[in-house]
Amino acid sequence: MTVSFRDLPLEDLAKTIGTVVVFASASALTEAADAADAASGGAIERARGAERFTGKEGEVLDVPAPAGMKASRLLVVGTGEESLTANSARTIGGKLGAALGKLDEAGATVFAEGFGDDLLLAKMALGVRLRRYSFVKYRTESDPSTDRGPGKITIGVADSKGAQKADIDANAIAEGTFFTRDLVSEPANILYPESFTERLRGLGDLGVEVSTLDEDDMAKLGMNALLAVGLGSRRESRVVIMKWMGADDKDAAPFCVVGKGVTFDTGGISIKPAGGMEEMTMDMGGAGVVSGLMKTLAMRKAKANVIGVVGLTENMPDGNATRPGDIVTAMSGTTIEIINTDAEGRLVLADVLHYTQNAFKPKATINLATLTGAMIVALGYDKAGFFSNDDGLSAQLQAAADNEEEGLWRLPLGKAYDDQIKSRLADIKNTGGRHAGSITAAQFLKRFVDDSPWAHIDIAGVALSKDVKPTVPKGASGWGVATLDRLVRDVFEDSAGA
Ligand code: BES
Ligand code: MN
Ligand code: ZN
């Protein structure tokens, strides 16, 4: 599916074939809707009169075979009464995308004259793209509930130059989000640490500098916590480093983003119950968001130094697997008693966080991970939880998520929780008991970060969307790509604050 802008005079409206789309609110038709109403002999005004169309945000009036027009159907999409914002434009685009997805049409032409400025047009296009995403790679028979809709969507205004420019950034967010969704959707027999690494190498084409650590490299660095997770797997573990040094000063301290990339989590020897275990193909969701963000930043040529680092491994039971009770020494030197091999994400992050801060001296570090089921107990599926050692970074991150309308809520850290992860034999243990499970996991991570600003986002509940939202189909959501792109834009980019 492609969505693109082009110059389109309103005179073309009556002679355009396929699906024609225009916008209207309760009180006013846009210029394009006015033209469609005139061409169709008043079809829109008649529908408004009969209250079949009230112009609410994202409401869709479907006029089949409109008289006086070449189109096979005319869709009128409501814009609501409030003045449009970037987010409402994106939502309206999402709802338009959903409506188009139910049609059997080869092409759709959106006459957007009068919709709003270039940014709003681009956000609308973003919404259409985000909603129309589907992961169909492994289907040999098409599914009419998801696979319909036009393959080519053209959005036209009289002069589309500005919208095309604004659309570069919007399209970058869509493509980054799709990269995340694709990675999260892939099954674990296809996406394992080495094949994941190969996909990330593809970012090299966009100018991202991609390098890797293999198991020998990790062993030399002392990354025994990460390596312990992969011991039971036939697949080798990997760390992948993605550098986008887009700031004018290439030596300026980077913003680092770290991801948990457990390509499958059986639980290891502390094996999970069979029911629902297949969902653990998404346990690389944190690494997926980091990868998607790097793609977005490179595609829009962000003027910021950002380094993404992902720890990729597979957690399997095996004769060589880590046992409950094993003690490992992490790269930082801290010793860890592994009580439960299913609390593996924090072992991966312990070494990757330490490595990242050591190697790159970041301005700030944010890690993302599908870390704890307890996060879902606490916040459900609507909001991710985050933890931070820095109120400034927390406020910036929260503002970015609020601006992008991605659910996010801060939870506490605190010395008292450290008692729960004290080990009888080693410095710390990898589980903290039944209570405050997400917090003790975060507290564990904190032991491996320095004093620079850091935040941990537990995305266990949001990496997969349980139901359809205006710009998120069911399944891999891509939660976080837009928020982190916004954070980079507002805080870490050369022009930030200007
Ligand atoms: N990957 C899981 C957490 C998870 C659960 C993510 C459900 C998404 C949906 C993580 O590795 C895990 O197994 N955590 C354990 C920790 C426990 C053993 C301390 C958990 O949450 O049960
Ligand atoms: Mn686990
Ligand atoms: Zn896990």
Describe this structure in words.
The chain is α/β, with parallel strands linked by helices. It has two domains: 155 residues, Leucine Aminopeptidase, subunit E, domain 1; 321 residues, Aminopeptidase (3-Layer(aba) Sandwich). Helix content is 35%, strand content 20%. It is built from 15 helices and 19 strands. An eight-stranded mixed beta sheet has the order 7-8-10-9-13-17-14-15, with helices on both faces. Helix 3 packs across helix 4 and helix 5 runs antiparallel to helix 9. The radius of gyration is 24 Å and the shape is elongated. The two termini are 36 Å apart. The mean pLDDT is 97. It binds ligand BES, manganese (II) ion (MN) and zinc ion. The site of zinc ion (ZN) has 5 residues, from strand 9.
